[in-house]
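Job type: complex structure
Entries:
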Amino acid sequence: MWRTGSIAAAAAIALSAGGAAAQDSIKVGIVMPLTGQLAPVGKQVVAAARIYVQEHGDKVAGKTIELIVKDDAGVPDNSKRLAQELIVNDKVALIGAGITPSAMSIAPLATQAKVATVVMVSGTSVVTERSPYYVRTSFTLGQQSSIIAGWAAKNGSKKVVVVQSDWAPGAEATAVFADTFTKAGGQVIDTIKVPLANPDFAPFLQRARDVGPDSLFVFVPAGQAGTFAKQFIERGLDKSGIKLIGPGDITDDNDLPGMGDAMIGTVTAGLYSTHHSSAKNRSYVAAFKKANDNLRPNFISVGGYDGMHLIYEALKKTDGKVDGDGLVSAMKGMSWESPRGPISIDPETRDIVQNIYIRRVEKVDGELYNVELATFEAVKDPGKAKK
Ligand code: PHB
């Protein structure tokens, strides 16, 4: 009797200890490329997510937030396997996902397990439609490409050559740009696709120059803007009179300080600038640089920072309950001030609505920045607006 009772008591304690531990912490799994071609992307997201936790503390609704970060090297099969492990073994309550191909591969798992998943990177419209548990805090290429197309058409661009990194976000940047630009009376005279992995832009830039456009619309992902700018300048395109335009990726704040003065005057449509003038952004930039060896936060980083904000606020609303349906409905329609400016989650599409800024590269206090010239407020993803 004595022995049995003791074993039963011990088992009960073990159970309740396990139960209490499970209830007291909320695990958030983040699957990002921390090695490979798109490592700069994952590093920005994870650094920003950590800054958010550092600034706001790790307690929400009486629970402790635990980040579990996994490196998928940007390979979708890895992303899927890691997300599966996070759900089944680590029992994460939420996931932070990106880049586009990885988010696509995780979507069926999020749906099946009903795990609220914040898409912290991905610029492709269709991603949020892949799971009802997906909510996006990053951006779409369409948001930026439609705005720069209208701006370029109004500011003298008539014949454009497109240079596009050859994967889903690139295809979308091109399609949306071409649609808006041609409707505004412009012409896309050539579209050149550059491989995503280890791109050598030189031959593509030569071909673009030979076609004789007045402007070059370029999409390369974060991490490749520095290489692009170097080859653009080496080929003498900066002195050719051809205007360089694009979404904010080509003047990535991360790479801009090393690009050289030849980039001054480049105009892009982007969602975030390190130079954005707000108290919120100034303190964000200071905290990010301090924690990351003076690295600038870029447009990718805010997807991670705001993703954590969305998670914290949704958990406050659900009082720490983690069922996916409850969390996603708490996230729908939420609005707040991001370091990039005011943003919200469209309650219909679960997609981000944000300002898109026209910016020009300028030198301020000896450093290159994207200086904002004009603001287009509360821009929705044009891919969804059409439906
Ligand atoms: C994406 O994953 O869709 C993506 C990644 C990096 C970018 C743009 C888009 O710069």
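Summary: Residues 41, 98-100, 121-124, 169, 221-222, 249 surround P-hydroxybenzoic acid (CB under 6 Å). The chain has twelve helices and 15 strands.
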